[in-house]
């Protein structure tokens, strides 16, 4: 059979393989590489034309990672020995180049089919395999796989805002989560631009488009509690000096709460006098990046009074950056008007965000009390009747995270039960890797993993290694299928909930709890015990012969 136009080494048509991996980001790449090394016949399908996961879709102006090198990378020496980044926080273009390098070194493409979206995956009770369709819906590629891995990331489904009459708007509309390839800030020079959303995507778009727009209006519902980013250029020579230590950095990722190379201060925050606390905050603030978020007292996320001090410090540092009083009130609310506790929504890193917002041609409108009522032909109308016009509207309204991407694929488990039914009241998982009734189906960097409290490679590395070991064990023990036990799943969902309830994250207003999407079950979507505790949970299951999973012999 002739290969399809977009195929790299893979033949179209029905095939029987051991593993189908969906998604070409960090998790997918690592699983393809490791499963293949372990002798499993493995293929990878990716909806986009290349590797890179989210960095293929979310290529909006300014898109850049918030986790510094070398944390944001694969730990394999064969990959990092011959790769140097050009800056501490690379942009999406450089991350794509990194994935090209990974592809070359690990020889991945020969087992991948790009431009191939998976539409359905049905467990076949008779064959104990997954029947999967993908690609062209009229003439789909069909494949039968023993194991089905969903490595689609936590942001595989866009969250369109619930603003009525989107079709009425005649201007140009973009969403940060599916930005047109090649549409650069330069193409929007001199335009009048509107922007909805102040998450990481909104902050980065503001910085990029605010420099080229004729005028810009930023609609703010919840201001971002940003932290300063310092993004120096990095030479190969500098990285060569430290490269021998990268192994240790990757080991350190497994020993810290968020998978970074620094961690919380776990001692009681009240041991410090107010003066000592101020000095402590000054120190971690001066380190820039996420240090003020992730190297602070752990108590910031457990004790409201401690959190209040962090918010007050953030406010003290940030308020002077905004010149105009009206803008400042919206962007940097004082402690008594805070929208939420500090750090319980991922803060975004900013370079010149407030400089852009200070510009006279940039307006800031609060849509908290005065929401956008409707789209108009030329812009939007607010609830108080005020109309705002623009030629281009960028929506940076985020994603139906963690579960949305899974539920838009027609996935059916034992007895034909749809995943949409199994997760109707909220997602259920064993260890954030599998769900009961769906044998031999696994996921990574999705619900119930450290996911959003961490970063991609830090989380996926642990999960992929565990899965590879478990399936190797299955092979050695002649296992036909392996599946999460319903009781273990129930216990793990309770664990996720209990861990979350102990923290201030549980009240967080946004996507961490599924509160950003109307009608979505509100639940803890991440493992909030930190990476070392998560690893311990995995190790305990493994030591007990993969407890929490039912293994059926062939
Ligand atoms: P997000 O954090 O969910 O932000 C969505 C924004 O849209 C929020 O400000 C939200 O306001 C606003 N919004 C939604 N509907 C609205 C409406 N109807 N009217 C007005 N405002 C509305 O999404 P994101 O910025 O795409 O980021 C998602 C996550 O992706 C990040 O937290 C991060 O983990 C990841 N990411 C990372 C990077 C990076 O590495 N630098 C870059 C981009 C994304 P409310 O808060 O009031 O709901």
From TrEMBL:
Keywords: FAD, Flavoprotein, Monooxygenase, NADP, Oxidoreductase. SUPFAM superfamilies: FAD/NAD(P)-binding domain. GO terms for molecular function: monooxygenase activity. Residues 18-243 form the FAD/NAD(P)-binding domain. InterPro entries: FAD-binding_Monooxygenases (IPR050775), FAD/NAD-bd_sf (IPR036188), FAD/NAD-binding_dom (IPR023753). The keyword Kinase does not apply. Its cofactor is FAD. It comes from the Eukaryota. Belongs to the FAD-binding monooxygenase family. This is FAD/NAD(P)-binding domain-containing protein. It comes from Meira miltonrushii.
């Amino acid at each position: 059979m002739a290969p399809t136009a977009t195929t790299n080494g893979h033949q179209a048509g029905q095939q029987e393989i051991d593993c189908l991996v969906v998604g070409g980001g960090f998790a997918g790449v690592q699983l393809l590489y490791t499963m293949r090394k372990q002798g499993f016949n493995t293929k990878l399908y990716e909806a986009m034309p290349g590797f890179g996961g989210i960095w293929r879709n979310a290529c909006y102006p300014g898109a850049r990672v918030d986790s510094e090198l070398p944390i944001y990378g694969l730990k394999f020496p064969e990959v990092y020995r011959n790769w140097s980044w050009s800056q501490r926080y690379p942009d999406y273009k450089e991350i794509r180049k990194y994935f090209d390098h990974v592809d070359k070194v690990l020889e991945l493409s020969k087992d991948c089919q790009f431009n191939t979206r998976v539409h359905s995956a049905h467990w076949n009770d008779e064959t104990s395999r997954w029947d999967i369709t993908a690609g062209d819906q009229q003439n789909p590629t069909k494949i039968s796989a023993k194991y089905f891995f969903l490595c689609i990331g936590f942001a595989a489904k866009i969250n369109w805002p619930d603003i009525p009459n989107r079709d009425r708007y005649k201007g140009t509309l973009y969403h940060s989560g599916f930005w047109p390839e090649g549409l650069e800030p330069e193409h929007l020079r001199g335009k009048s631009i509107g922007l909805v959303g102040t998450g990481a995507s909104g902050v980065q778009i503001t910085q990029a488009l605010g420099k080229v727009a004729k005028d810009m209006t930023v609609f703010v519902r919840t201001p971002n509690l940003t932290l300063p980013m310092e993004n120096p250029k990095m030479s190969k020579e500098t990285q060569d000096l430290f490269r021998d230590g990268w192994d240790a950095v990757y080991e350190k990722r497994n020993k810290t709460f968020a998978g970074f190379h620094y961690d919380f201060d776990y001692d009681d925050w009240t041991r410090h006098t107010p003066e000592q606390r101020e000095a402590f905050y000054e120190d971690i603030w001066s380190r820039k990046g996420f240090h003020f978020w992730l190297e602070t007292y752990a108590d910031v996320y457990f004790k409201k009074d401690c959190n209040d001090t962090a918010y007050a410090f953030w406010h003290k540092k940030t308020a002077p950056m905004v010149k105009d009083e009206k803008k400042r009130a919206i962007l940097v609310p004082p402690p008594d008007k805070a929208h939420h506790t500090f750090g319980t929504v991922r803060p975004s890193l900013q370079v010149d965000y407030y400089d852009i917002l200070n510009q006279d041609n940039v307006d800031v409108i609060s849509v908290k009390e005065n929401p956008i009522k409707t789209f108009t032909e030329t812009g939007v109308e607010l609830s108080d009747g005020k109309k705002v016009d623009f030629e281009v509207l960028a929506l940076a309204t985020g994603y139906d995270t963690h579960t949305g991407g899974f539920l838009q694929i027609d996935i059916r488990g034992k007895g034909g039960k749809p995943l949409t039914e199994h997760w109707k009241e909220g997602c259920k998982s064993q260890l954030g890797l599998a769900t009961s009734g769906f044998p031999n189906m696994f996921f990574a960097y999705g619900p119930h993993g450290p996911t959003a409290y961490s970063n991609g490679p830090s989380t996926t590395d642990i999960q992929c290694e565990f899965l590879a070991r478990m399936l190797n064990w299955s092979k050695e023990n002649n296992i036909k299928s392996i599946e999460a036990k319903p009781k273990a799943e129930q216990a793990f969902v309770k664990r996720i909930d209990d861990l979350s309830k102990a923290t201030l994250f549980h009240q967080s207003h946004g996507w961490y709890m599924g509160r950003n999407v109307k009608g979505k079950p509100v639940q803890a979507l991440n493992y909030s015990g930190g990476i070392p505790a998560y690893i311990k949970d995995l190790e305990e299951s493994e030591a007990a012969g993969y407890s929490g999973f039912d293994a059926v012999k062939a």
